[in-house]
Design goal:
Strand content of chain A: 5-15%
Oligomer: homodimer
Shape of chain A: globular
Distance between the termini of chain A: 31 Å
Structural class of chain A: alpha+beta
Largest interface: A-B, 85 and 86 residues
CATH topology of chain A: NADH Oxidase
Strand order of the largest sheet of chain A: 1-2-4-3
CATH class of chain A: Alpha Beta
Radius of gyration of chain A: 20 Å
């Protein structure tokens, strides 16, 4: 795609090698559909990916997410049967079920206590944020669900870029039976499986990055 | 936070300087609440941020997003009045209204035509994906909305990390009146304002990164 490459070259600002490499990595990301079925990740590598994913932001620092790392052949096959039989579910080294949890303002004091303990957050902040969050979420099931999807997706996108930085491919998927996944992998009623994310070493034959809509179609200035 | 720093140092794998810097950037990200009110971004810099945001993945390459860059003092003040009077809306150089659009499978052929034209996507793929997407979204308003939230959040997270790579702070916000924003900024009925995102040079006095839940609370292996 010479046009895209040219655009990228023009848009990447001159800066430090670090800045340049991170911008280039974001600019170059593409979805992996073909994984090396012999690829493997250790549990420590999976923990590293999720550690980085949880550095994503969440509203009120709710951290209302749950990552289920499906990485044994048996469990991957079971998940694949609930996900349109997509080969990448089993070919990837690990396929995450990424859940957001229905937003619950009552969890906020416990989630913020370490920030108070660390000394930078005034002690009255958690109850104030709990009240603000309650005014948004309490008896508002659509907003609770929106928050679950947002949180899961913030974590998923961060995991995707962390995987790329570790030399791994990734593929987000929404083609799966959410009820079957919830039942088959023991999710609670408040765990919303927002997407699956296959991660692992890529096979060589993947498509290039798909062209994007012109910027003028998606960006307005006010 | 010596514990977190220690954990980060332990988890960051040895690798190339590029790999290391990108992982460290993800690990170090924190939300900016205090912006330098004198900070400014050019429209070209804003375009660069959104260009990078659109490199995020979307289901079926739907690209069902819309970025409204609110950057004039008048428009920022108007948006602030709809967003709990949060100072960061006006102090930041730009505050984006990031919308996802209700998923519509009929848009897929046009969104994939450039991939067919580029020669890597077989010509029969777009109609196949349109059918698969139709089976998910058609007459399924909750799924259409979930997809809007997912798409907007994928783009927002990518924009957050792009901003960080450009040396800018950012703050996602959900405390706003969605109906007022839709009416005041001319959104269509299919544009769902999923979040606001303030971006700009940070003031010096921001909080450090807030501590995260223990990994064992959010990660399960299967």
């Amino acid at each position: 795609m010479p046009f895209m490459a040219c655009l990228a070259a023009r848009l990447i600002q001159k800066g430090s090698p670090m800045t340049h490499s991170m911008l280039a990595a974001i600019d170059d990301r593409r979805t992996t559909n073909m994984f090396d079925p012999a690829g493997h990740l250790t549990d420590a590598e999976i923990e590293k990916l999720v550690h980085l994913a949880t550095k994503a932001p969440t509203s009120f620092n709710l951290q209302n997410w749950r990552f289920i790392a499906v990485r044994t052949p048996e469990a991957k096959a079971r998940l694949r049967s609930m996900a349109w039989d997509q080969a990448k579910v089993t070919d990837a080294a690990v396929t995450f079920i990424i859940c957001g949890q229905l937003a619950d303002h009552r969890t906020i004091p416990a989630r913020l206590a370490p920030s108070v303990d660390a000394g930078f957050m005034p002690a009255e902040v958690p109850s104030g944020w709990e009240g603000a969050a309650g005014s948004l979420y309490d008896n508002q099931p659509q907003r609770q669900r929106d928050e679950a999807i947002r949180t899961a997706t913030f974590g998923a996108m961060t995991l995707i870029l962390a995987a790329q930085a570790m030399g791994l491919g990734s593929a987000p998927m929404i083609g799966f039976d959410a009820d079957a996944v919830a039942q088959g992998f023991g999710l609670s009623e408040t765990d919303i499986p927002a997407l699956l994310l296959a991660v692992g070493p890529a096979a060589p034959e993947n498509w290039p990055q798909k062209p994007r809509r012109p910027l003028s179609d998606v960006l307005d200035f006010v």
